[in-house]
Each structure stands twice: as C-alpha cells, then as structure tokens.
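Before a computer can learn anything about folding, someone has to put a protein's shape into writing. The outcome of that step, for a single protein, is printed below:
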Amino acid sequence: QVQLVESGGGLVQAGGSLRLSCEASGRTFSSYAMGWFRQAPGKEREFVAAISRSGGSTLYADSVKGRFTISRDGAKNTVYLQMNSLKPEDTAVYSCAVRTVVGGDRTFAKRYEYSAWGQGTQVTVSS
C-alpha cells in the first residue's frame, strides 16, 4: 500500500511563490506517474499537473501552465509542485495521487485514473 503525505502549503500574497512536496512510501515510487489536484471550497477536485514515471514528460492544466512546475526525485520518493505568480483563484487544498490506470486518457487529467490520494495541504493566496 502506497502512502502519500503532502507538505509546503501556507498563506502567501498574490504574485508570491510556494513549493509543495509529496512524499511517498510503501511501494516503488518510480513505477507510476504522479499527479497534483486541487479542490477549492464548494468546487470539484480539479487536475493541476502530472509527471511521467521517469519524469521526462509533464502535463499541466491550462489555468496553471507557465506558472507551475511539477518535478520528481526518485531517490527521495518525492514529487514537487513549484507554484509561482500565485493568484487568489489558486486558493485550494492541494493533493497528490498515484496514476495506476493502464493506458488511459492522454491528458492524464482524469480523477478516476488515480488512486492512493494524500490528505492534502492548504494553499491560501491573498489579494
């Protein structure tokens, strides 16, 4: 059973930056693609970014493209999300997850293709 723990969230002013971390344990981390999702109050959980098993390919939601960067460190079993130029609309609980589906959608953005969700870390961006 893989377990994921997110950290790095906090309160930041618009235009600022935060770096989120997702530490995995319990299974070979490098065997799976990983994703970041977020959920704002009253809204559905939405896709933010994904990274392939090797880290060679990344995908982003249009809303964060050019501002966020996903990366991974296999030796540390950790996935990161660097968030720059933050906006108030980025305020949400950010969670990481393991993509376990075989094949699947090319966008890597479908929630049902992921499992082993972490509990999330709160990101609040003030105006």
Summary: The longest strand covers residues 18-25.
